[in-house]
Design brief:
It is built from six helices and no strands. The chain is an all-alpha fold. It has one domain. 21% of the residues are buried.
Amino acid sequence: MLTTSLPSAYTPPSGWLTTSVWPVSDAQETPKLESHYIAHAAAKLEARIRARLPGRRLAAVAGRLAEMVPEVQQGFDSSYARFKLTRRWSRVASVLIVLGTLLALVLALRDAFRGGELESFDWVPLVESAINDVVFAAIAVFFLWALPERRERRTLVGLLHRLRSLAHVVDMHQLDKDPEQARSDYVPTAQSPPNRMNAEELHHYFDYCSELVSLIAKTAALCAEHSSDAVVLDTVSNLETLAAQMSQKIWQKISLLPEH
């Protein structure tokens, strides 16, 4: 029996990382998604659709996704720059509010003791005013502290909603494609959609739709890598679940296609 083994000093050939399924970033050793790989895959899918099924509008959807991926990355970059700027100013404002509140309390106590000894009931309005100042200061600090995360969340959720809409567009394209139309004994009705594809073309069409929704889910996963916000992660998870359900429905149609 013929056996082969790799030498102990084996090193992968040059370019191995760029052709692997999970590209490795230059900045990190751990595998991660890269936006330009997703954009390149979407552009290649558009070219494949145009070559195999010329005239089909599904290719335009793949082209739109290829254009959206750089837009999503630019949205990340601008959002992160805005996040750092907002966080810096919110921290400064929080410190000023805390210092202002402490200064107001110190001045109030100084004026109170300067006027002489206070009766017990004279402390009530002073304590009440101090509590109100502390409570309102705490609310303001909490609002300012969470402001950068809320702004980042709004940007990322907006991008995810655009991707969700694109996934539904893909679903609409395959919705009226009936695998039964490719059967030789199929009898259309007056309301049946026109059938312009044979079994082989329908198989490729459904396959392209499945790849497209998968790429949409990968684009959404980019948002999860740029945020740890619970709302963003939950939206990404819901979109990935939606894409998986769409892909499962598409492959059920593929399984109903006749042999070709």
